Amino acid sequence: MSKPIYHGLDHHVGNTPLIRLNKISALTGCEILGKAEFMNPGGSVKDRAALGLILDAEERGVLKRGSTIIEGTAGNTGIGLTVIGKARGYNTVIIIPDTQSPEKIEVLRTLGADVIPVPAKPYSDPENYNHIARRLAEEKGWFWANQFDNQANRDAHFKTIGPEIWEQTAGTVDAFVASVGTGGTLAGTSLYLKSHNVNVAPVCADPYGAAMWSWFTKGHTEDDDGDSFAEGIGQGRVTRNIENLAVDHAYRIDDQTALTIIYQLLREEGLCLGLSSGINIGGAVRYAKEHGPGKTIVTILCDSGLRYQSKIYNAKWLSEKGLDSEMPIQSVLD
User: Fold this and answer.
1) I need a labelling partner for 95 at 20 to 30 A (CA). Which of 5, 39, 110, 130 fits?
2) Radius of gyration for the alpha carbons in the chain, expressed in angstroms and rounded
3) Cα(132)–Cα(144) distance, integer angstroms
4) Shortest CA distance to 206 belongs to which of 250, 247, 240?
């Protein structure tokens, strides 16, 4: 036997399993499969982007041991950058909107990031968290990861999650469904799958209040049609990662639909997921309903619901927001 080779944490991002969502698959007649991204070292799909951004910066010589990485993030990319950064010898400063769950902010601090919560502002405002991160990087000489417009994000998904899905489904995948935060997951994965089979359908699942549904269906980002409590998704502009991407379908998914799905998965299948995963699965269900049984549809289980216990798994919070955790799953299919 050859001597085994062992690696540290930063070598164990990806290769997550595909989980069959049994009840929803049975109800739709399709194979609806979720990529279990909560099993990454930092607990979310954003670990892939974090590793890709770091590796690209190292290759370009802008990151060296002891350097500081700064990023504006809703939380999960910051967690990925912190965990992988620690493993590779970097410090992290995270600028995060103060509207994000307290659990994610505390996780970041526990992991050793310097966390700076700021008021939530639109991208057009100079005090938006991304602009603050960019300015601090320029002032301090830090590396700004720039996950939204750095296409190393998109490339990371092209190189990892796309090939994994293709191999895990033995090339039988019919559609790939993802919401848009930075756009890296939807763009990179879809481009890879399309390069192997032009008939694979890229599908955008967009929460209300976001602009990607409008962009893909109408060619503009001007619709203002509500809001969503989903964190880490819901883009209002066309980032460089989403540029030039065409999707076959885009769906609006409301929070109640997403909540109904994730509560069913918790009660009957043991999966505890965040609301963004419910948005994604809602998009997969819409595609299944429109295209009939027999399809293999893959989507992203972005992160664990344990990061949102104070919100979407809090009965008082749900009641205040007018959301119902007891709604039957059949209502999603009607």
Assistant:
1) 39
2) 19
3) 10
4) 250
Count of beta carbons in the 10 Å neighbourhood of residue 147: 28
pTM over 0.90: yes
Which runs of E-coded beta strand occur in the chain? 18-20, 31-36, 68-72, 91-97, 114-118, 143-144, 175-178, 201-207, 249-253, 296-301
User: Could you report the per-residue pLDDT of 304-315, keeping only the tens digit for each?
Assistant: 999 999 999 999
Specify whether the CB–CB gap between 296 and 31 falls below 8 A.
yes
- Alpha-carbon distance of 184 to 46, in angstroms, equals 9
Q: Residue 332 to residues 69, 81, 130, 259: CA-CA distances in angstroms? A: 42, 36, 35, 10
- The residues assigned a catalytic role are 46
How far apart (Å, rounded) are the C-alpha atoms in residues 254 and 317? Answer: 17
| Residue 141 in tokens | 């000489």
d(CA 109, CA 112): 5
Q: Which residue is it, tokens 């819901």?
A: 234
